């Protein structure tokens, strides 16, 4: 029984080291989902040397308003005319093709690494992933699912409501609601691997097993409540 037959998954992956734990989580997802019959595409951002900065060079040809550069407006206009940079168009095509997008990354400063944030800045532009109106539940990617799979240096206790870092929900909120849900994505529960900098080998194996186990039934999962009222 191939539960993922016909499903397409994009893994947006940000780690420099293939032997890292993030690399292992990414490889495992690729393996488990492929075995289910899914077709898996990976955007390995560091290997691609993905350009994270939102700059004028993202617009090909004449600017809409050369006197006052506004990145949001310029991208919106360029998108409508098919004049966005090739690397952005390629990533947008991968997103459009996908039923599920998994973001695999180590937490950097309570957020995602800059290269992944840059991917969001440049790929999820107005007209493509959202409109005004056309965001949150009406976001243009509302038929798709998104899942954040992240590792932390801090251990689980530090991310409890009473811990030094505060509830992990706060760290996740800007990404799950402000980025994913804003674009319409149905947000699946995150996969959080805590305390990577000092966890035992045995515990690491358990985390990998749990991830593999979860992915077996990923297509049965219901999205989390990502409304401000329901989330907190
Ligand atoms: C700029 C920056 C900012 C940061 N900010 C934060 C922050 O705000 N909050 C926070 O909590 N942390 C923060 N950190 C820490 C960071 O999140 C962790 O270092 C990171 O999550 C560790 O993940 P990794 O994949 O790099 O681990 P790795 O060091 O690559 O892996 C951990 C261990 O797992 C082993 N491993 C790999 N694959 C397997 C496998 N298949 N089976 C068993 N073992 C395996 C590796 O060999 C290694 O021993 C920050 C780090 C940086 C660089």
Automatic annotation (TrEMBL):
InterPro entries: Flavodoxin_fold (IPR003680), Flavoprotein-like_sf (IPR029039), NAD(P)H_dehydrogenase_qn (IPR051545). Gene3D superfamilies: 3.40.50.360. Its cofactor is Zn(2+); FAD. The keyword Phosphoprotein applies. It is found in: Cytoplasm. Keywords: Cytoplasm, FAD, Flavoprotein, Metal-binding, Oxidoreductase, Phosphoprotein, Zinc. Its EC number is 1.10.5.1. PANTHER family: NAD P H OXIDOREDUCTASE-RELATED, RIBOSYLDIHYDRONICOTINAMIDE DEHYDROGENASE [QUINONE]. It is an enzyme of class 1 (oxidoreductase). This is Ribosyldihydronicotinamide dehydrogenase [quinone]. SUPFAM superfamilies: Flavoproteins (SSF52218). It comes from Latimeria chalumnae (Coelacanth). Residues 7-214 form the Flavodoxin-like fold domain. GO terms for cellular component: cytosol.
């Amino acid at each position: 029984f191939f539960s993922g037959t016909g499903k397409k998954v994009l893994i947006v992956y940000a780690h420099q080291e293939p032997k890292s734990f993030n690399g292992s989580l990414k490889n495992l997802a690729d393996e488990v989902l492929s075995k289910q019959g899914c077709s898996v595409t990976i955007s390995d951002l560091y290997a691609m040397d993905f350009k994270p900065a939102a700059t004028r060079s993202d617009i090909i040809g004449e600017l809409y308003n050369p006197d006052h550069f506004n990145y949001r407006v310029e991208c919106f206009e360029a998108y409508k005319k098919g004049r966005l940079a090739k690397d952005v168009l390629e990533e947008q095509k991968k997103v459009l093709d996908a039923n599920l997008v998994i973001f695999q990354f180590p937490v950097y400063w309570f957020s995602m690494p800059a290269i992944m944030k840059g991917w969001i800045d440049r790929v999820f532009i107005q007209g493509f992933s959202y409109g005004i109106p056309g965001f949150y539940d009406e976001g243009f990617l509302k038929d798709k699912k998104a899942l954040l799979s992240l590792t932390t240096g801090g251990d689980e206790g530090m991310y409890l409501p009473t811990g030094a870092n505060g509830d992990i929900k706060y760290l996740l909120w800007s990404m799950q609601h402000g980025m994913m849900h804003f674009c319409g994505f149905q947000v699946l529960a995150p996969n959080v691997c805590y305390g990577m900098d000092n966890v035992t080998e045995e515990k690491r194996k358990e985390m990998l097993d749990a991830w593999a186990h979860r992915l077996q039934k990923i297509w049965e999962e219901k999205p989390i409540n990502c409304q401000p009222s329901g989330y907190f």
